[in-house]
Design a protein that fits this description.
- With 420 residues, this protein is of the alpha/beta class.
- The protein has two domains: 3-236 and 247-259, 2-Layer Sandwich (Aconitase, domain 3); 269-413, Aconitase, domain 3 (2-Layer Sandwich).
- It is built from 15 helices and 18 strands.
- Helix 12 packs parallel to helix 15.
- The longest helix is centred in the first third of the chain and has 16 residues, at 70-85.
């Protein structure tokens, strides 16, 4: 069996499972973000009284934090009341950050577990050798009542990434290359197992970036075999005992793709689809794409490593007049680390605006939304029309390095000359 299948078998009390089977499995941790107050309503409508385990579920206020309007403030108030009533051990309020960042930091994510959240980017936690997947309000209410949920055992695709990334090619570039090949519907309700020498050597932040965007290919979940960086990270934080699952050597994938990372160059996902991926150089050779905003943040590109490279490029410089750069750290811990290392000061000196750790403008609600006709380059994960504000705006997805170098020039540029 594959490691994902072993996780599903273990949590459903079976010796083995097969592709296509429906199993009922225990959920090790459940998370509800502040878009899903309906979960609370559904919980009571279905007869729920108390959550099944107050140490295995949490609310995370990240999409609307601090609250930009009365409706979101009211939602937060109702969620807090539910959290207090159930004495939840974990509650991540407006001072914490994005759910996919704060949960690993809190030690509730570890190898061999099943984590379900009301967010499609829960595939991020495959970076830790966990099975992470998203669900809606009704399914989440069922989990809160019973601690279990049904799962269809997915087909598993192998994406093998071999070689060493050239200078200026970051995990975001790598996953955009993969996305351009597999496309937005190439892995619908399938799992993606990222393997290969590049993955083996990748740090925690890079792994999270790649697994995060597996859902942009339609994947139900993602997986990476934990390496030493992951095991060291988890060992310092995990709140429960855990067991790493390993894929059997003779396992046969439903499909396999192989990429030579050493041949890749900086990539750009162009409007208005994530799969519309092109080499960055090819795009800028044809047109000078003027920018109104650069944006570095979210569960894809707001970690310490992301802000560090932006600060390196921008230190001692300043963005042009009439442009803006919005920086949204993924969590309070990331913010504190970046303050301690001087990155925040360097970014502020360069003209950046620093906002509350969380999702910010990634979903088009507040803290950096864009107007009709404006162009934004961002390290986030989606560029659909209206994703960050107006449906008449244009969004380009790129690495944090490309975002920083581009907004420094007022138009999209190749980041590599700025890395020396």
């Amino acid at each position: 069996m594959h490691a994902i299948e072993k996780i599903l078998a273990k949590n459903s009390g079976r010796k083995e499972v097969c592709t296509g089977e429906i199993v009922t499995a225990k959920v090790d941790f459940a998370e509800i973000n502040d878009l899903y107050l309906q979960t609370v309503y559904s919980f009571y409508e279905m007869g729920g009284e108390k959550v099944w385990d107050n140490t295995r579920c949490a609310f995370v206020f990240d999409h609307y934090t601090p609250c930009p309007d009365i409706k979101s403030a009211s939602n937060h108030r109702e969620m807090r009341e539910f959290a207090k009533l159930n004495n939840l051990k974990y509650h991540f309020d407006t001072n914490c950050g994005v759910c996919h960042q704060v949960m690993p930091e809190a030690g509730v994510i570890y190898p061999g577990m099943i984590v379900v959240a009301t967010d499609s980017h829960t595939t991020t936690h495959g970076a830790f050798g966990a099975m992470g997947t998203g669900c809606g309000a009704t399914d989440m209410a069922t989990i809160l009542m019973t601690g279990e949920l049904w799962f269809r055992v997915p087909e598993i695709i192998q994406v093998r990434l071999e070689g060493e990334a050239p200078k200026g090619v970051y995990p975001k570039d790598v996953v955009l290359h993969v996305l351009g090949k597999i496309r937005a519907d190439g892995a619908v309700y399938k799992a993606i197992d990222f393997t290969g020498s590049y993955v083996d050597s990748l740090n925690v932040a890079g792994r999270m970036t790649i697994c995060n965007m597996a859902v942009e290919m339609g994947a139900k979940t993602a997986y990476m075999q934990p390496n030493e960086d992951v095991l060291e990270y988890v060992a310092k934080r995990a709140v429960r005992p855990y067991e790493v699952q390993y894929t059997d050597p003779d396992y046969e994938y439903a499909q396999s793709y192989v990429f030579d990372v050493s041949t890749m160059e900086p990539a750009l996902s162009c409007p208005h689809s994530v799969e519309n991926v092109k080499p960055l150089c090819e795009v800028i050779e044809k047109n000078e794409i003027k920018l109104d905003q650069g944006y570095i943040g979210s569960c894809t590109g707001g970690r310490t490593e992301d802000l560090a490279i932006a600060a390196k490029i921008l230190k001692g410089k300043h963005i042009p007049a009439y442009t803006r750069l919005v920086i949204v750290p993924a969590s309070r811990e990331v913010m504190q680390e970046c303050i301690a290392k001087g990155y925040i000061q360097d970014l502020v000196d360069a003209g950046a605006t620093i906002t509350t750790p969380g999702c910010g403008a990634c979903l088009g609600a507040h803290e950096g939304v864009i107007a009709p006709g404006e162009v934004c380059i961002t390290s986030t994960n989606r560029n659909f029309p209206g994703r960050m504000g107006s449906t008449e705006a244009q969004i380009y997805l790129a690495s944090p390095a490309a975002v920083a170098a581009s907004i420094l020039n007022g138009h999209i540029v190749d980041p590599r000359p700025y890395l020396d």
